[in-house]
Amino acid sequence: MSAQTDPADLPGVTKRQGPGSGTPRLPGPRGGRDRKVGAPSGGGSGEGRVLNVFSHGVLVIWGLLVTMPLLWAVVSSFKDDTEIFGSPWGLPSVLHFDNWSRAWDKANMGQYFFNSLIVVGGSLIGTMLLGAMAAYVLARFDFPGNRFVYFLFVGGMGFPVILALVPLFFVMKNMALLDTYHGLILVYIAYSLPFTVFFLSGFFRTLPTSVAEAALIDGASHTRTFFQVMLPMAKPGLISVGIFNFLGQWNQYLLPTVLNVGDPDKKMLTQGLVALAVSQGYKGDWSGLFAGLTIAMLPVLAAYIVFQRQVVAGLTAGALK
Amino acid sequence: MKHGKYRFIAGFLALPLAIYAIFVISPFVQAIYYSFTDWTGLSPDMKMVGFDNYARLFRDDVFWAAVGNSVTLLLLLPVVTLSLGLFFAFMLNVGGRRRRKAVIGGVRGSGAYKILYFFPQVLSVPIVALLFQFAYNPESGALNAFFKAVGLGRVQPDWLGDPQIALWCVMAAMVWANVGFYVVLFSAGMSSIPKDFYEAALLDGANRLNTFFRITLPLLWDTVQTGWIYMGILALDVSAFAFVQIMSVGPGGPDYATEVLPLYVYQKTFRDGQAGYATAIGVSLLIVTLVFSAVVLRLGRRERLEF
Q1: At the fourth CATH level, which superfamily is domain A111-288?
Q2: Nearest C-alpha of chain B: how many angstroms from A190?
């Protein structure tokens, strides 16, 4: 790693505090900035200061490493091909918005976007409903075979998906489900169930039993209790796992690559992007490609920034359990 | 009541279980069966060949290249990704200078760093893979252009085209895409460690390196272990497939330098029409996965006995 680069050279880092500098505060024109980083108190131990500059340096470097490629793609999407090749790091002389419209219409990105919306919308609803149903039954009812079914579901988390793909292709073919929205929806649901059932059954187990019992005594059926009492109570868990599934299904690449190859107009966004990269690479429309990439990238990033807390909670909830 | 209960259970389980059995369980079971046949995947006829497919694996150089690369990824990817994740998380949470009251504290703006670092995690693998593919492009890519700009114009590596470094290039993209998740995950874990632990250690004169290895890491061990398994599966399965298939030349090249097991399964099935043989490779991949999980869990358990 390039961790050894002098952090003081980077923007956003307080200057004039070389590693090893024992003086707590250097007077200078940048005094205001100085105060922002270092609290004036605490004896200003040498270690603290050195570490602070060092850690900011390292953190800023990684921050740049993360943002530069994304910015570079966005900037490139406004250039024309000569600029992309001639000055990869320069700014576009004119903003070429036509790249975007070309990618959206001619390269079908709009259609792919729409396909992804349909499939992910359908499979997300299906996954949440079916996953919650199975998880609820497995978490709260005693019946013979309960553990077996549970481990059957949960076991699916650990197996390499690629192994199942070959036979899956033929299962789908025999059921005439290849290259259809509903076929892909069913498969997405099936492969999302292991984690969903695992996570939600853990969640249902932690909910108080008394509320459900009260509902039953009041004469509600099991089904009604589930939909009107338990599901609303499980909302935080549903949101977490819902976000997890949304991102997983939206970003799904392997399943459509194998199961969705017949009709070029039915491609998912991820697939379409790769197909675009391959064909545009030959045609030489690099600016269109960058525009396509940006079209695929920006909505997800925007959604992430808006729902940042929920996304992080949803994605990390599973791993922390 | 009792009657109603079983009808309810059956009613609620039937559909999810049916979908799961048809699309997940049955293909897995079939895959193991197919691995003992000479099925092409194109026609319905096949015959049993016993362990022939498995015997053939031993003579298949590409298979061994794929095993080597997959195991390299499996060993290095989690180490690099998790170390970077731990390092940054520690910086963010403990690396700050001491303030008046708090014994330890994160650097300023740690929240902003976390938001930023998480970016790649929400992008799909194709987006990341394509981004890096452009960056690596030897003629017009950002990397070589950068080298030229800083006066290293003579160093113009072929990146993905060079068998010596192609796998490392792919791996760098995978690390880039995943570090942010672990920064956030470990940060969450670190913030739940009681502050008095650090207080006591600092009073005893421990420096930050010591506090990391004596307090933070042991108390985070469970999370690290989960992350380790997660990264391992990623290195063996879907993610590795997508990165290599999109980024590498060939794909899997140059000269099989980036061939990995899941990609080889895919190629043998859908490109070469050797579905029976492909599933045998898949079964070997399954075995590697299971061994890996068992080893990690085993090592983790021993480690935990220490305190």
Answers
A1: MetI-like (1.10.3720.10)
A2: 5
